[in-house]
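INFO  loader      accepted 1 record
INFO  loader      residues=154
INFO  predictor   begin
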Amino acid sequence: DGGLLPAQAFFLKSMEVGRCVVRAGNAFRLSGCDHATVFHLANQDEHKGFKCCSGIRQWNTLDCFDRLDGTGPLAYFCDLTGKNLNQQYHMDEAGLIHHSSGKCLGASKMGALMPQPCDKATHWEKVNIFKPEETELYEKAVEKYQLTSDMPDN
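INFO  predictor   done
INFO  writer      dumping tokens
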């Protein structure tokens, strides 16, 4: 389970700045939430028995948050196996987004994203949460045809 059929998709909103993350080329920045990029959790997590999720993926694309540079995360093809350390981002209950580098995802009032020490980092919240249509269709088919995870896939 690498999050290919996400349970939920959402905007990432800075609780301090009140704006949302938007894709800008191969990078990300803050903008008004009416133009926000939709994300979901993705990629296997070996610490969770290779279940989902060890990263943040842009919904309906193959791109995940990757290396956390001075200008924030870069967009790069997702490693569904979760082995790419650059793509390991975890959001905790307090709303901090931790990166495998030991830093957290921060944002300036001007809208720039950046790595920050976690004790000073931006707090994030998932907003405009919805269940993607492809997930709903899959769940309905599983129920209709009484499919189970132990059935052969051929």
